[in-house]
C-alpha cells in the first residue's frame, strides 16, 4: 500500500469536465432509471462520475468523503480527468480521502491522484472496515470471477448506508452476446485486434465472466451479502458502436433502428447499478 505525501500538489481537473455534453449526462440516478437513455449521453464515464459526485453531496459528510475506486488504473471510462474531478469534490481539507485498488501490477496511477493506493483485487485488498461513503467501478464487474466474494469484501469496507456504483456491459444487450459468440468461434482476439489494435488488446484485455451483468444477477447476489434491493439503470451512447468496423459496420444500421423504434431500456449497452449497504 502506498500513500501520497500531504505536500504533494494535485493536478486540477480540466474546467467543466463534468458539465453535461448531452441531455442525460447529469440528470441523477432516479431520472436515469425512469428514462430511455439512448444516444443522449456523451459517455458512461461522465454519467458515472456525476453520479459519484451526487452520492457524495447527498451524504454531505462534514468530515469529507471517503471514496474507493475499484480497478482504478486507467481512469473512469478510461479517462483520468474524471478521477481528478471526483477528487475535487472529496473535501480533502475536511479529512476526505481518495483510495484506489488496481489488480494489474503493470498499471500505476498518476502521482498525487490517490491518498491511498494498492495493487490488489477487491477480495484481497487490505481495507479498513466501515470506511467508505462511496465505492465505484468502471467496467470491472464483467471480469469478476466470484461476485459473492467481491461483494463480501465490498460490504465489509463500506460504511452503513454507503453506496457502490458501477458501470458494466448489460447482459441483455448485444455486447455480451457478441463477446460470447466470438469466444465460442475462437475469433474474439482476432476481432479485438482488428477494432482496437494489437497493443491495446494485449495491455487491457482481461477474461470476461459476465456473472454480475443483469438486474437478476445483481439482485440475487447483492441482497444475500448485506445490501438493500439494488437499483439499475441503462444507458447507451455512440461509444458502444466503436467496435463496428470493417464488415461489422453492416450490423450498425439495423441495431440503431431497433433501438430507436422499440425503446426497451433494459436492452441498452451499459448497465449502471447502485447498491446501498444496509444501515
List its salient traits.
Rossmann fold, 32% helix, 18% strand, alpha/beta, globular, 9 helices, 279 residues
Tally of discrete structural domains: 1
Number of helices: 9
Q: In what order do the strands lie side by side in the largest sheet?
A: 1-5-4-3-6-7-9-8-2
* Percent helix: 25-40%
* Biggest sheet descriptor: 9 strands, mixed
State the CATH architecture: 3-Layer(aba) Sandwich
Q: What is the CATH C-level name?
A: Alpha Beta
Structural class: alpha/beta
Question: Rg from C-alpha positions?
Answer: 18 Å
- Stretches where pLDDT is under 50 for at least 5 consecutive residues are 5-9, 199-204
Roughly what fraction of the amino acids lie in strands? 15-25%
The beta-strand count equals 9
The ordered string of helix (H) and strand (E) elements is EHEHEHEEEHEHHHHEHE
- CATH level-3 fold name: Rossmann fold
What do we call the CATH homologous superfamily? Vaccinia Virus protein VP39
Average pLDDT across residues? 88
Tell me about this structure.
The chain is of the alpha/beta class and 279 residues long. The protein has one domain (33-170, 209-276): Vaccinia Virus protein VP39 (Rossmann fold, 3-Layer(aba) Sandwich). Helix content is 32%, strand content 18%. It has 9 helices and 9 strands. It has helices at 29-34, 44-59, 80-88, 147-157, 174-184, 188-196, 198-204, 215-222, 252-262; strands at residues 2-3, 37-38, 66-70, 97-102, 116-119, 132-138, 158-169, 231-236, 270-276. The protein has a 9-stranded mixed sheet with strand order 1-5-4-3-6-7-9-8-2, with helices on both faces. InterPro entries: SAM-dependent_MTases_sf (IPR029063). GO terms for molecular function: 2-polyprenyl-6-hydroxyphenol methylase activity. Its EC number is 2.1.1.222. It comes from Adhaeretor mobilis.
